[in-house]
Structure formats: structure tokens, C-alpha cells
Amino acid sequence: METYALQGGLYAVFDYQGRPSEFAAVARHIFQVWLPPSAFVLDNREHFEVLGSSYRPDDPDVEETIWIPVKQRG
Predict the structure, then answer these.
(1) Which residue, 20, 28, 73, 9, is CA-closest to 49?
(2) Among residues 43, 35, 30, which one has the least CA distance to residue 69?
(3) What is the DSSP string of 6-47?
(4) Other Cβ atoms within 10 Å of 16 Cβ, number
(5) CA-to-CA distance for 63 and 47, rounded, in angstroms?
(6) Strand pairing of 48-51 and 40-42?
(7) What is the torsion angle, in degrees rounded to the nearest 10, for the CA atoms of residue 30, residue 34, residue 39 and residue 42?
(8) In whole angstroms, what is the distance from residue 4 CA to residue 41 CA?
(9) 19: burial class by Cβ within 10 Å (0-12, 13-18, 19+)?
(10) For 5, which DSSP code?
(11) Domain spans of the chain?
């Protein structure tokens, strides 16, 4: 592994718990339902997820933290 330095900035952070196979629906909700009426717009920086140390793709109660780069609208 190598160290990678992210650009600084504002992120919207979402905690997710559930089946990894259902994550796509959560992502659609973030980008199609939450983001449009919010005070933010998507920023052109890295998106990333933090997975727990015990992450298993077959676990129905997996925990992830989703980081979406945003900036103030306007």
C-alpha cells in the first residue's frame, strides 16, 4: 500500500449499515434525493468510503462511511 493525500475541502458524510449489494440504492438516494435540494453541489474531488476492519462483502450488516465532496451552492 502507498500513502495518498486527499485534497482538503468540505465533505458530506453518510453512515451506511446493510447489505453491500444494496449500496447502489443508497448512492442513488444521496445523489438524486438528498443533494439536489441541499445547500451543496458536488465538488470535483475524490469520493471515498471507509470500511470497518471486519468488513466482509457477504455480511448483511456491513458498516461503511461514505464521504462525498461538496461545496456551498451559489
Answers:
(1) 20
(2) 43
(3) PPP--EEEEEEEE-GGGHHHHHHHIIIIITTTSSEEE-SS--
(4) 17
(5) 17
(6) unpaired
(7) 20
(8) 25
(9) middle
(10) P
(11) 11-72
Q: How many CB atoms lie within 10 A of CB 31?
A: 12
Q: Which cell numbers in the block locate residue 68?
A: 462525498
Cell matching residue 50: 471507509
Residues recorded for the chain:
74
Tens of pLDDT, residue by residue over 33-55, are 999 999 999 999 999 999 978 88
Q: How far apart are CA 43 and CA 9, in angstroms?
A: 9
The model's pTM is 0.85
* CA neighbours closer than 13 Å in the CB half-sphere of residue 53: 0
